[in-house]
Amino acid sequence: MIKTIVFDAYGTLYNVYSIEKKCEIVFPNLGKRISVLWREKQIEYSFLRQLTGNYVPFYTVTKEALRYACKACDVSLDEEKESILLKEYLSLDVYPEVEKVLEQVNNKQLVIFSNGSRDMLEPLVKNSVLAEHIHQVISVDDHKQYKPSAASYYQVLKKLNLTREEVLFVSSNSWDIIGAKTFGFKTLWVNRKDAPTEEMEVRPDYIANDIKKISEIVN
Amino acid sequence: MIKTIVFDAYGTLYNVYSIEKKCEIVFPNLGKRISVLWREKQIEYSFLRQLTGNYVPFYTVTKEALRYACKACDVSLDEEKESILLKEYLSLDVYPEVEKVLEQVNNKQLVIFSNGSRDMLEPLVKNSVLAEHIHQVISVDDHKQYKPSAASYYQVLKKLNLTREEVLFVSSNSWDIIGAKTFGFKTLWVNRKDAPTEEMEVRPDYIANDIKKISEIVN
């Protein structure tokens, strides 16, 4: 019996690629390339820091990933540009179907659980239409263990006083679904980009192209 | 004082992109794309399995990554094709400068330490000109902890009875260098593709485009 729906933030509720527009203004003709590289490197750096036991908050990871993306594209990132682009992470677009779905399932506890640090997550949620729908925001920064480690997901159970079976975990990131499912959550993989399913024995319980599927699962 | 040079295998001594030729024969016009995706996914899956505590040998990781790459390229991989392509991992090309450098530094103990399982590593070394130069092959499979975790590098010290300071660690994979340096090895990053340096505070001790630099460091 699902009591709580736990959402990943970046890529699941909020579109990280909405930063492409600002990247394009700051670096003409490179908006798409920089925004994609930035996101890839951000994920890789969070993996590497978890794997090597060298945690820094996601804001730092995000900044370092942006610096790498700019170097890889041979463009110079001064302090002003860096600050403009990092600020974009505080006002990402919400995916179009999200608000309505959250209204439909508001008989459940609705939680965001993200790798983002609180200085990123709290303004993001507050600045968005989701502020009134989300009951709680949990950051991995409270325990400094990144997703997809088991140690990170365990904090969700501990903070919310839940069992694994009471959680539906929703993410567009297949690595997050692999971590959450291995940990024991029921999972919905939001396959927004129509990507192939991962070739690992750990499979999501549900797959859909957006989060509308949730009301079917929990109602 | 360096006693032992520890080499990563894939990408450092052996060219994993030499599989492109066979991929191109099996899947015309897709050789490059499949070989690049295959390698990226192989690394990602090893990270994910380490992060989620769900170890399987690298042979399985490699097979699953190939299956994903083929799905992503919309081509069908039957058993015969899979077997042909996986077999390529047992006879990868050695980078051109490698043999001569190993001869020059053979006053040091020369060791391979790889994520590869022994069923992959042993035929690979044996089938290559490096067989007579490498004194020992260590596989993470003996302890089932993938690089770049500290637990993996620690096995090198234990098996060889060395201190961190006695090791020069050589890898073309920047994530492997980050792990090895965080663990405390002296490191040479073999930047074969002229990639930007990673934007993390952990930096390699030496950087060069091939392994010739080693004789300068240890002699």
From TrEMBL, chains A, B:
The keyword Lipid biosynthesis does not apply. Keywords: Hydrolase. The keyword Kinase does not apply. One of its GO terms (molecular function) is hydrolase activity, acting on acid halide bonds, in C-halide compounds. Belongs to the HAD-like hydrolase superfamily. S-2-haloalkanoic acid dehalogenase family. This is Haloacid dehalogenase type II.
